[in-house]
Amino acid sequence: MRYFFHIAYQGQYFSGWQKQPGVKSVQEVIEQTLSKILKSPTAINGCGRTDAHVHASQFFFHADIEKEIDFDLLYILNKALPYNIAVFDIIKMEGKPHARFDAVQRKYDYFIHTYKDPFLSTQSSFYQLNNLDFDKMKAVVKLLPLYKDYRAFCTHPDKYEHTICNVMEADLFVNPKGDRLRFHIASNRFLGKMIRIIVGKMLMVGKGELSFDEFESELVTLQPSKLSLPAHPTGLYLSKVTYPYLNLEPRTEFIHSTQGIDWISI
């Protein structure tokens, strides 16, 4: 029987979602815990592959379990998992829906703070920047839904069959003091480090190191006009995953977005 698991995790102590030799991953921790509880090797398939140190305030995986669950697996699993992984719902599914391939939209949020704050250090990316041009940054963000091919915003584009992404939403928000930012984007799919590369380029625009025309040229020509490092992973969250048959609201809140911040769309 196939079950969908609705979860969230803090990614700072993991080398990403996907299981890899020699490193600690979210997938491996959950598989080991679930297999121990069920007393049977249990493989899981996630809705995506978050990078090392990237968070997920909403994430889904599916597992095929031989017998129907007739005990409080939700309670037992949460007790057994570490504090930085939470399971909210376990949903019995009809047929063989796929947590990754059936997703029609994924939303991400990227948080930045421009002053040193020890309570934000694992939740948001610290960039000590002053006098960012928010208007120019917002202008390039608004370009994103107008283009489909994101080859220039991917670390290894040739490993994909294609680099087309249907970006449905893109926006930039700032707090009243102008020292914390939130970049939001939604698409049917994302390429490797695509969001972090976009954020890195957006910051270059804000600092005056990359012009609006140069940014748009990358979307048109599919070639990066100026090289830049991807933004830090710490501030990135997979925040919403939607299926044709399942559309649940996230059950958790970003700690830094609930402390009285009035996010303003620029």
From TrEMBL:
Enzyme class: isomerase
An annotated GO BP: tRNA pseudouridine synthesis
GO MF annotations in UniProt: RNA binding; tRNA pseudouridine(38-40) synthase activity
Annotated residues for binding of substrate: 108
Catalytic residues as annotated in Swiss-Prot or TrEMBL: 51 (nucleophile)
Catalytic activity: uridine(38/39/40) in tRNA = pseudouridine(38/39/40) in tRNA
Keywords recorded for this protein, A-Z: Isomerase, tRNA processing
EC id: 5.4.99.12
Domain Pseudouridine synthase I TruA alpha/beta: 148-244
UniProt superkingdom: Bacteria
Summary of the function given for this chain in its UniProt record: Formation of pseudouridine at positions 38, 39 and 40 in the anticodon stem and loop of transfer RNAs.
Family: Belongs to the tRNA pseudouridine synthase TruA family.
Subunit structure: Homodimer.
UniProt-recorded name of the protein: tRNA pseudouridine synthase A
Species: Pedobacter alluvionis
Lineage, uppermost ranks: Bacteria, Pseudomonadati, Bacteroidota, Sphingobacteriia, Sphingobacteriales
